[in-house]
Amino acid sequence: MLLSVFLSERFRAYSGHKDEKNAFVSFIAKASTVGILLGVAVLIVALSVINGFEQQLVHRLLSVVPQVEYVAPSRPIANWPEKVEQLQQQPRVSGAAPFIAVNGMAQFKSQLKAVEIRGVEPNYESNVSAINQFTQGTLVSQLKLDDVILGQQIVKQLDATIGDNVTLLIPKISEQGKSLLAPKRVTLTLAGVIEMGGPIDSSAAFIHLNKAQSVLGYDNSQVTGLRLSVDDVFEAHQIAMRVGQTISDYVYVSSWFRTQGSLHQDIQMVRTIVYIVVFLIIAVASFNIVSSLVMEVREKQGNIAILKTMGAKDSTILATFVMQGLTQAFVGVLLGTLIGVVLALNISELFTWGSHLFGANPLEGVYFIEFLPSKLVLSDIGITVIVTFLLAVLATIYPAWQATRVDPAKVLGN
Question: What is the pTM for the complete model shown?
Answer without folding.
Answer: 0.73
